[in-house]
Known about the structure:
One of its GO terms (molecular function) is cysteine-type peptidase activity. Helix content is 21%, strand content 26%. The chain is an alpha+beta fold.
Amino acid sequence: xxxVTNLRTPSEPTTINMKNALLFVLLVALFxxxxxxxxxxxxxxxxxxxxxxxxxxxxxxxxxxxxxxxxTPYVPxxxxxxxxxxxxxxxxxxxxxxATQRAAAANDTDSRTILMxxxxxxxxxxxxxxxxxxxxxxxxAVATFLRDEGSVAFSTYDATRCxxxxxxxxxxxxxxxxxxxxxxxxxxxxxxxxxNRVVEDVKDHxxxxxxxxxxxxxxxxxxxxxxANPYYxxxxxxxxxxxxxxxxxxxxxxxxxxxxxxxxxxxxxxxFFMKYADFAASVEQALYMVLAPEPEADGKPVLTRLGGTxxxxxxxxxxxxxxxxxxxxxxxxxGLYFLDKKDWKLRQRFRLQAENTQQSEHICVFSxxxxxxxxxxxxxxxKYQPLNxxxxxxxxxxxxxxxxxxxxxxxxxxxxxxxESTLIIKETGTDYLCILYGNEPIKPELQQILERVQxxxxxxxxxxxxxxGSRAIAGQVAYAPDHMEAQVTPxxxxxxxxxxxxxxx
Length: 505
């Protein structure tokens, strides 16, 4: 039997170990440690099924915008996904984006408190949508689940890795979930048409303190991001990707700052940067989330006011100049307004302007003539299908697809959107211009609502309320007497209509 003996003197091991330790530190500095997993599957077709953010209004508006917007003070303590986990999408949305937006609204800047108070559980979402820790998920799947089902608070189930325990049995049947109001896309490279506005659109959302979740291609250069070199510049597309959360922009440096899901000891305290040009050339998908009102202490949703304004502007061409004039209507009862002028001429030009004055609201605008002809003005990507002789739609159409009917706070809708176009009175008689304000999406049901209006008779407002059914607001509505404005705190129903009667001859 042979034994290997250590013949070093007592002082030698310390010297050699110190050399080894210094060598190890040097190697760690030269070669960053392996990153965690990725987890985003690019599915352009599925992503395109999410509602699209409405395009910018065509009305020229010289507004103000900050040169920098940094939401870093509102970002929660960054969490780390497992090194072989594919959970980046759930973390980027449920933790980093949602918690940052909620904390910014509450002006809360304690990162640990933000994580425990405002973040949602990423592993609850990942497990519920059937996520496989060895395979990724799509942005659309996670966003849709957060909208339709929701998640428990991070403090309730704080797992972040697949090695953590699965969803506790006590949570599997829970109904006390926190949902987002909506998730909307505004960039999908595979369906990109026209100029690439992604940089400006991301900046617009950040300026309103809404983080943006993006899908990026991941190359080997991502593994070499360090605190000393925190920039990422992918130069080609890949089949797989990674989700991250954009939380700041800087027009002076022309760069975005993004929160990653590799923990705070990666990159620059868990963040990395992308120059505008690199971002525009490489980002694959982008969406933002609209949050529901914060629940009360007992978990019940807060009752929020619903409503807005609706304006009729006649357009006149005078001395080769185009002028708009506001018409002041008067309220005659129950949300119905009349114009004092009742002899508008054939082919009179006009524009409509609607604003929501309370919160993120769903809005649809349409008109109904005395002979039941219906035209939809907003969202502009849908047309009403009149019934045929058998009372059936002439062709099938999916009303829930395409541009969203959601309008963000203090949003303005101008109809038509093209500043060089106007609406015109096509036939003499009486037309009713109608606007619906809703807390939930209206567009998917709009065709059925209009069919019921078309098939009914009687006073126009009563026809509309009957067509809305249980979604019609019940309660005391405050109507302005001398301009079209209404406000209500709904306790039953979620759609508030306003109608303007326009007579021409």
